[in-house]
Hints:
The protein has 208 residues and is mainly beta. The longest helix has 19 residues, at 2-20. The protein is 9% helix and 57% strand. It is elongated. The protein has an eight-stranded antiparallel beta barrel with strand order 1-2-3-4-5-6-7-8. This is Outer membrane protein beta-barrel domain-containing protein.
Amino acid sequence: MQRKSILTALAFFICTCLLAQRNAPTSTYTADEENTGFKKENIFIGGGINLGFASNTFALGASPEIGYSVANWLDLGLGFNVNYASQRADPYYNGNIRQRNFSYGVGPFVRIYPINVLFLQGQLEGNWSNISLKDMTYDQSSTYKYKSTSFIAGIGYSQRVVGQGSFYTLIGLDLMQDKNSPYRDYNNRAIPVIRTGFNFYLKPSHKK
């Protein structure tokens, strides 16, 4: 089931790329502009929604962010997240224990664009979670609070014009093994994370 979830996520990503490729914009950078120092028009804010799914697991969240386009091929920034995750009780999967997880976190990210419409992203996150467990067999409930660390690595498609705006879709996985991560399931397996959103530059450029 885990492999099926990852393949489904990848299929969704590929379809999104093919549909959006038709109207992909080009960058406003030139070779000379990359070395002219700090530019207010290169600061962006925005974010999007997060989706995650695996066997018996569903996750939904929001991921606001602020960043700076250092060059045509590089963005640096700080991302925030608020997530809700639900794991259905199943006697064969998780001992018939239902889990609800509300978490929030923050951490730096880097995006590298090997080509205009494709990027690689890494994001280190510190997360704080409130977890509610209910044993459906014995009708017993408990709650816990945890702190965890995640590192989400992924690949994404972007329609991006530096100084104007961008749209992106990302598929990633938490590469760390912290069992309390909001991006890992009851059995500590990584949940595929899909993020889709928009960014807007604070001082839009009118260059074409």
